[in-house]
Structure formats: structure tokens, C-alpha cells
Amino acid sequence: MNIFSRLNVGAKVACVVTAFVVICVSILAFFIISASKHSLEEQAHRIVEQASYRYGNILDMVSSEVLDTLFVGATAINTQIEHNTISAERLKDIVTAIPNNINSIEYAYLFMPQFMGEELIILAQSNGKEGQKAAIIKSEPIIKTFTSIQGAIANNKPSLSHPAIINFQNKELYAQGFGVPIHDKNGKVIGALGAFINFANIGIPLLSEEARVFNDDQRFVIDEQGTIIINQNQNFIGKKLDEIVPTQETKNIIIAAKEGKNGIFPYRTAAGIEGIVGMRSIKPLNEGNMYWNVLSYIPNKSINEPLVELLWIIIACSIGTILIIVIGTMYYLRTCVAKRIRLILNALTSFFAYLNHERKDAPQPLKIVAQ
Predict the structure, then answer these.
(1) Which residues pair with 108 in a beta bridge?
(2) Looking at the predicted structure, is the pLDDT value of residue 84 above 60?
């Protein structure tokens, strides 16, 4: 306070004006940043929700295409059985027509315990030539033990196995099997037509750089048990999400995934980076409680990046505004106000000199200029 009292009038006025400007600009900046933060958070939630729905639709299309293709093949087999035109060669034609038509199918297979008095297993592998028949390869006896095949035969309805890492045709695959039943003339189940989907192929559009929306964002897929089936880190495939990130937030996500609930959840990555995930749950089969849950993750740091940029812009503009106002005020005080004070001082000096008979002529009246 003593320092302020020692300042001249111009400096005091400049300090007061500066203080008011700083307070006003700070209040304005606070409300701008608060409103911007709220808007950015809402926008991030909408983006992460839309991303999870978009990628969920991709997986939904995959399951629909696989099932529709298998149903078409099963219907063709059932029709030939009904008309007594069935043969091993025609069955091979039907099975080999499946893999090359659907990118997500790597293997298609048919299992019939009794076909013309013997067990029949037909296995076809995609060769990537769309529109052409796939190659018939040596059958694997393990096919008849697949959960999807056994489930389709036992329950007389489409079946789906759990995602698993399997050794098939001398390759290690992380895959999931679909199966649909085959019927005789009387509607009795006599076999099943099935296919493997390779999650490595399905995950390509989800994990590509073109799918990136924010810096350091991620997309991954878990099943209803919280098992990771698609992830950019191959070391995480087949592991439980709550084992990699053992937090309550992760447990809440898995609970929602088991119930097939969509939503936005707080999440922390294995590297400890906080953020949010949008989750979209789809059912590969209309019946049952099996889900594919697509999660789209955005780190808080990426969400707040525009806010930090806005904060620096506001700070720079505020400092510039304060300097302009202070310099302008000081210039005005030193020129216009100080000049008028000098004129008043000279007029008063001349007036008192005239009163004291120090000068004979009366001073000129001071001109009052109102601005």
C-alpha cells in the first residue's frame, strides 16, 4: 500500500485500470474455458460412441454374412438330399463355394457322421480368389469335435464356439467357429456345415491407421467373458481384460459386456493412461448370450489437447490486451491529461500573479474543452 501511495497519479490510474482488466479477462477466460471443456467432452463422447457403433456394425455385418452364407449352403444340401440328387462331388462344390465369397472365412467344412454308410468330412480353404471355388484340402478329424459343429447337431440350430487359439492345418489361429445343421427328408439332423472366422482378418479395418480419430486412440474387441479377441498388441490376444488392467473400471466394462450393454465408461490402459471407452455390443447369434463387444478408446490427453491450445491462445490474447490497454492508458495520461494539467497550472499561476499585483495585465481566460 505504501508503494502504491508513492506513485504519481498516472501510475496509479494505470495500476487500477490494469487490475480491472486482469480481473475481467480472467473471469471471461474462466467461462470460455469451462464452456469449451464441457463442449469438448460432449463431442469426445459422441465421437467415441459413433466410432464404437461404426466398428460394431462391421462385426455385425461379418456375423450376418457368415450365417447367411452357411444357411444358403445348408439349404442347397437339404434340397439335394430331398430330391435324392446328393453326391460327394456336389457337396464339395457347395463347401468350396463358401470361403472365397466371404473375406472373414478362412476355412469352411462339412461333417456328416453317416453319408452313404461312412463318415464324411469335407474341408475347403480360402485362396483369396474371389468368385472362384476354394481349394479342397486334406480333412482334419478334429472338425467333428468342434463345439460349433457338435452344438448345431445336438441342438438343431445355429451354433457358435467360444473364441480360442487352435492349431489347425499346421497353423496357429485365433478363431471362432460357426455351425448350422443339415437335415434329411424328415427334418432329422444328419450333420452340420460350418466355418472358421479368423479374427486377424476381421480386425484389419478396426486396427488400421485410417480408423484413427484422436492421437493414441485404440480399438479392440472383447467377448462376453472379457477375453480380448482383437487388439493391436498381439500379446494381449486370448487374455482377460481384467488380468491386463486389474481395475474396478475394467470390471465394470466386463460386467456390461456380459450383459450386452452399450455405453461410455472410464478406462485406464495397461500403460496407465486414463481415458474413456465407448462400447457397442452385438450378438453374433440372435439366440444365446454370446457377444462381441467393440471398444473404442480415447485418452484424456488427446481430448484435452484442443483445450490446452485454446488456453494458450486465451493467455496470449489476454496478455496482449492488457499491454495494449496499459500502454494506451499511460500514453493518454502522459499526453492529453498531463498537457491539460500544465495548462491549468499556468493559468492558475498567472491568475494569482495578477491578484498579487505581480503583473498588470489580466491573464487570458482558460478555455474549457469538453471531450
Answers:
(1) 124, 195
(2) yes
145: three-class secondary structure by DSSP? helix
The CA angle 116-137-145, to the nearest 5 degrees, is 65
Residue found by looking up cell 488392467 in the block: 245
C-alpha cell at 200: 486377424
Which residues are CB-contacts of 12 (< 8 A; sequence separation ≥ 6)?
4
Q: Would you give the DSSP letter of residue 336?
A: I
Q: 3-state DSSP call for residue 294?
A: strand
Q: CB of 267 within 8 A of CB of 277?
A: yes
Residue 228 has φ and ψ, to the nearest 5°, of -75, 125
d(Cα 311, Cα 32) in Å, to the nearest integer? 9
Rounded Cα distance, 249 and 255, in Å: 10
Distances (CA, A) of 330 to 2, 17, 359: 21, 10, 37
Q: What is the DSSP string of 205-218?
A: HHHSGGG--STT-E
Name the DSSP class of 167. Answer: E
Q: Tell me the β-bridge partners of 266.
A: 276
Task: Identify the CA nearest to 32 among candidates 218, 260, 290, 309.
Answer: 309
**Which of these, 159, 137, 134, lies nearest to 74 by C-alpha position?**
159
| Rounded Cα gap, residues 121 and 123, in angstroms | 7
SS3 state at 81: helix
What lies within 8 Å, CB to CB, of 151 at 6+ separation is 159, 160, 161, 179
Q: Distance (Å, rounded) from C-alpha 166 to C-alpha 174?
A: 6
Q: Using one digit for the tens of pLDDT, what is the confidence trace for 234-282?
A: 889 889 999 999 999 999 999 999 999 999 999 988 888 888 999 999 9
Dihedral over Cα of 338, 339, 344, 348: its sign: positive
- Give this prediction's pTM: 0.75
pLDDT in tens, 96-124: 888 877 878 888 999 999 888 888 999 99
Residue among 134, 212, 190, 200 nearest 163 (CA): 200
Query: Grid coordinates standing for 235?
Result: 500379446
